[in-house]
Amino acid sequence: MQLLQQFSYQLIVVTNQSGIGRGYFSEQQFHHFSELLDAQLALYHIYLTATYFCPHHPVDALPSYRRDCTCRKPAPGMLLQASKEHQIDLSQSWMIGDRLSDVQAGKRAGCRTILLSPDPPSLNEIDQSDWIVDNLLHAAQKIVESENTK
Ligand SMILES: [Zn+2]
Prior knowledge:
Layout: H1 2-6, E1 11-16, H2 18-21, H3 27-42, E2 48-54, H4 77-86, E3 94-97, H5 100-109, E4 112-116, H6 123-128, E5 131-133, H7 136-148
Parallel strand pairs: 1-2, 3-4, 4-5
């Protein structure tokens, strides 16, 4: 994350948190967790531009959270919202995640995509991801290398 920051990337978290909709924890608890994460990252001089979360689930959620929303990945809603609210060019952005739904959300939003997969990826994952690496540091290094070869 430090490396990406050095190259002027904004860091934004987009996360499915259907545990909220399922009633496992509250939005307030999630906000508290996010604040703790921000504080931990700040110790390393890493600053998130924003955090977006989807509390919904189409089936398995309390009535007030049960819906087919446009934010739950693989839908691109959170990325589109981030782009709008922070003037981010999605075509110059990278979606990095450890699930195929992350890659699919990124693709639908017009981002380039990196799947984090410590285990051998499936054919579907290979087919849909721009790159596959085993951890976030390697993802950042690949991005920076691609900047240097522009
Ligand atoms: Zn949602």
